[in-house]
Write a structure and sequence with these properties.
Blueprint (H helix, E strand, L loop, with lengths): L5 E7 L12 E6 L5 H9 L17 E6 L3 E5 L9 H18 L3 E9 L6 H12 L4 E6 L8 H14 L8 E3 L8 H16 L2
Parallel strand pairs: 2-4, 2-5, 5-6, 6-7
Antiparallel strand pairs: 1-3, 3-4
Length: 201
């Protein structure tokens, strides 16, 4: 799939105010500083579509982008940014949970994981929560260009092994780099495949 059209539609903190209609939504979420905005810009081919910030954790909104006039890419707030303080954290938690649990149009949630890091408890807990709530999700490993040689495979295999402790069957996963567009085709093809399945129902 190629993206010929990507337009910003609305930002808000209230799931009730998300766009009406039945277009499928593919939401992207991850810890602050995981490279989410860069990934969204790389996927859409629009450099400034999602705001990349030098201050991690700036996005406190649900952002809807209409893609090819037939599906939404949704940029969700990053979770677990320490400097926000307890109140800010709880507010973000509420926004994220209300969207994920109540938004019927959400077709798949892409959970972004920094491929350079060892498995982090905050990500594993979030993934476990998704499983408990029956949320369809995939994992997107980001910043793959930063690991040289076999280190990338080693890191990803370590992560998958850790997930196997919780999951009998692993969710689909993608290995990406916003720098060299690695994983772009695979991710967009996956979205297109789901859209086709939805349309044939």
């Amino acid at each position: 799939m190629e993206i010929s059209n990507a337009e910003f539609v609305i930002s808000n903190t209230d799931v009730e105010k998300c766009p009406a209609g039945t277009f499928p939504e593919y939401a992207f979420i991850g810890r602050s500083n995981v490279g989410k905005s860069s990934l969204i810009n790389m996927l859409t081919g629009r450099k400034g579509l999602a705001m990349t910030s030098s201050t991690p954790g700036k996005t406190m909104l649900i952002n809807h982008f209409l893609i090819n006039k037939n599906w939404y890419l949704v940029d969700l707030p990053g979770y677990g940014y320490a400097k926000r303080g307890q109140k800010g954290q709880e507010q973000i938690q509420r926004i994220i949970e209300s969207y994920i649990l109540r938004r019927k149009q959400m077709t798949n949630l892409f959970v972004l994981i920094d491929s350079r890091l060892d498995p982090q408890a905050i990500d594993l807990d979030f993934i476990e929560w998704l499983g408990e709530n029956g949320i369809p999700f995939s994992i997107v490993f980001t910043k793959a260009d930063k690991l040289k040689g076999g280190r990338l495979n080693t890191h990803i295999n370590l992560y998958l092994k850790k997930l196997h402790e919780q999951w009998e069957e692993l969710p689909p996963y993608f290995i990406t780099s916003s720098e060299n567009r690695m994983g772009r085709k695979e991710l967009l093809d996956y979205i297109e495949k789901i859209n086709k399945e939805l349309n044939s129902k």
